[in-house]
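for the recovery benchmark. tokens below, seq after
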């Protein structure tokens, strides 16, 4: 109760300090999907944005009135407080001591950095809660290894990847890990059939969404943003000159912008129309041709961002409007900024928990198996972020979704 109260106080102070609805560059795209769904209820598929977050906005509209974006933001604040409580429950299961769980929960519930991405009309805050809820369901499965708990995990996965596309491939490594857990607990024979059925159902949903996108929007994919991101990765690593000779004229135009230090694909594509057409599909093909021909170079260049993205900090864009609680909020944010640097220790903790998963004395321990799952979720997020993002701002935005789990892993005490 004390944790919930403190999280509510910090959240309310933050919202009072920055009153009004906060929009960003992604907001119009989400609102466009909302409008499309309201006009044509069957058109859930969109070329750019998945339907999970727009459906939440529609639900809030139904309860609070059409166009009430402030209510949407307040709901996101409530989900953030709920995620704080879920982190507390996770930490309590793992640490076994309420005061330690309280401190770990407080690192999340009083985190101004997280709140600065929760309040705006964007999907990160909702995805943060969805992933934390999924983590709690996974922990419950590890404790019980029941079929019912496994299907609870499946139910939690669906809205997550219908909100944020980078989590679409999570079921593959996650179900493999859950099968390992079941094997360690003597339940593998019962689970593997359910795992295959669940994978089939999940990717039937994914395939249905892709087919709907192809039918209604003439784009056979989940989101065209992945095309932009692939092109952005090649520009970030300065690998555009390694394209085939058929791209010679295109590369020369790209090099003009790259020589100015600009590798933002949204700045470059309007000036390279042959890559921008068909939802930037040619840009993605251009990038894939380079990556396929130089996979080792691409992976080697991805190693530094994997580590640096852990501590890359980019404040959310906002007009600097003084508020009544600037003093205490800035003090909290300064502390959070220092704590953010502690993320750099995650690779060390990942190695420690991997060792415990392999060590005979601890490999079947419930805490070790649970922490292994938390490490898996964070590692997946980090790898997808590194391979999909191309700027420090992108890294931080996607990290927001799994930052509570990152805090849990890096601040959890050693195994009892």
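predicted aa per position
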């Amino acid at each position: 109760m004390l944790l919930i109260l403190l999280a509510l106080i910090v959240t309310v102070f933050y919202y009072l300090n920055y009153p009004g609805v906060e929009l960003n560059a992604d907001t119009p795209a989400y609102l466009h999907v909302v409008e499309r769904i309201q006009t044509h209820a069957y058109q859930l598929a969109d070329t750019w944005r998945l339907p999970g977050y727009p459906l939440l906005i529609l639900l809030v509209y139904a309860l609070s009135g059409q166009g009430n974006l402030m209510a949407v933001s307040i709901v996101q604040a409530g989900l953030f407080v709920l995620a704080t409580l879920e982190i507390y429950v996770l930490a309590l299961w793992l640490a076994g001591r309420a005061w330690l769980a309280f401190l770990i929960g407080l690192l999340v519930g009083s985190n101004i950095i997280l709140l600065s991405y929760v309040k705006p009309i964007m999907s990160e805050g909702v995805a943060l809660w969805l992933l934390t809820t999924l983590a709690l369901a996974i922990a419950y499965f590890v404790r019980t290894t029941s079929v019912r708990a496994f299907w609870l995990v499946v139910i939690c996965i669906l809205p997550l990847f219908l909100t944020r596309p980078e989590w679409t491939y999570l079921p593959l490594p996650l179900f493999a890990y859950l099968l390992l857990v079941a094997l360690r607990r003597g339940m593998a024979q019962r689970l593997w059939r359910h795992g295959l059925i669940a994978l089939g159902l999940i990717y039937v949903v994914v395939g249905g969404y892709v087919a709907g996108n192809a039918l209604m929007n003439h784009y056979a994919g989940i989101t065209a943003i992945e095309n932009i991101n692939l092109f952005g990765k090649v520009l970030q690593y300065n690998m555009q000159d390694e394209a085939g000779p058929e791209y010679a004229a295109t590369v020369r135009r790209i090099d003009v912008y790259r020589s100015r230090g600009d590798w933002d694909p949204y700045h470059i594509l309007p000036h390279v129309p042959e890559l921008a057409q068909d939802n930037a599909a040619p840009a993605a093909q251009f990038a894939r041709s380079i990556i396929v021909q130089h996979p080792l170079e691409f992976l080697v260049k991805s190693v530094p961002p994997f580590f640096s993205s852990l501590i890359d900090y980019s404040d959310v864009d906002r007009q600097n409007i003084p508020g009544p609680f600037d003093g205490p909020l800035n003090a909290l944010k300064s502390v959070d900024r220092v704590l953010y640097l502690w993320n750099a220790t995650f690779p060390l903790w990942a190695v420690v928990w991997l060792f415990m998963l392999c060590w005979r004395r601890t490999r079947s321990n419930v805490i070790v198996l649970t922490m292994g799952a938390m490490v898996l979720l964070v590692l997946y997020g980090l790898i997808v972020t590194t391979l999909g993002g191309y700027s420090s701002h992108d890294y931080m935005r996607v990290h927001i979704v799994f930052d509570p789990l990152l805090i849990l892993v890096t601040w959890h005490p050693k195994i009892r």
